[in-house]
């Protein structure tokens, strides 16, 4: 598990390898990740959007941007957390992801970024 705190918001990430499959005559490696967003600050915050950079071992970079997470824009009061799971496909058995959430603090209406720490994606069969 990797963790990082930005502006009182703690991000924790756990990853899993989901398997391989063929699509359009090409092998794909499926990875899952579980993210917990914990509000350790003194004000209520809302996650509005996300930005991801996904890397595979073949130097391919995919950038993903979108509203909320899994169709939600969670509001977190101090001490609350939100956990969700998602996934990605890679063209290689190794890769990494990192990014940030765009959030707003309801106490002072300030917008800020919460950084998602870089985490590795690796298929267990490919490890030495």
From TrEMBL:
Pfam families referenced in this protein's UniProt entry, alphabetically: DUF525
Domain ApaG: 3-128
SUPFAM superfamilies per record: ApaG-like
Listed InterPro entries: ApaG-like (IPR050718), ApaG_domain (IPR007474), ApaG_sf (IPR036767)
Protein name: Co2+/Mg2+ efflux protein ApaG
Species annotation: Gelidibacter maritimus
